[in-house]
Amino acid sequence: MIHTLNLQPQPFAMIAEGLKTIELRLYDEKRSQIGVGDTLVFVHTENPTQTLTATVTALHRFPDFAALYAALPLDQCGYLPEELSTASPEDMNVYYSAEKQARYGVVGIEIALIEEGQK
Fold it and tell me: Is this model's pTM higher than 0.90 or not?
C-alpha cells in the first residue's frame, strides 16, 4: 500500500540526507493504516513537486511522545547531535495536542529511503 505524508522543509531534508530514519506521527485513523513493507511518499510542504519515497521497515507504537522519546534513538527521529541534550517530548505538542496523543497514541515509523531507480 502507498501512503502520502506531508513534510516540512527541515525533516524533508533530513530524510533526503539519510539523517532521519524515524518519522514521528500521531497514530490516528490515517497512520493506523500504515504497515511494515508499505511505501510512503513524502511531499515537501513548500514545494509539492519535491517528493521522497521510502519503505516502512518497522512501526514503534507508544501511548504518547514521552514514552516514545524514552525508547527510541532521537538522533534517528530528526534531532541533530547538538540538539539531543535539549530534545523534549513537548516539542511534538506543536503538532499534536496531549488530548490527541491520549486518544490515539503515537507511532515512530521507521523507514528506508528508496533510491531513484529502485521503485
Answer: yes
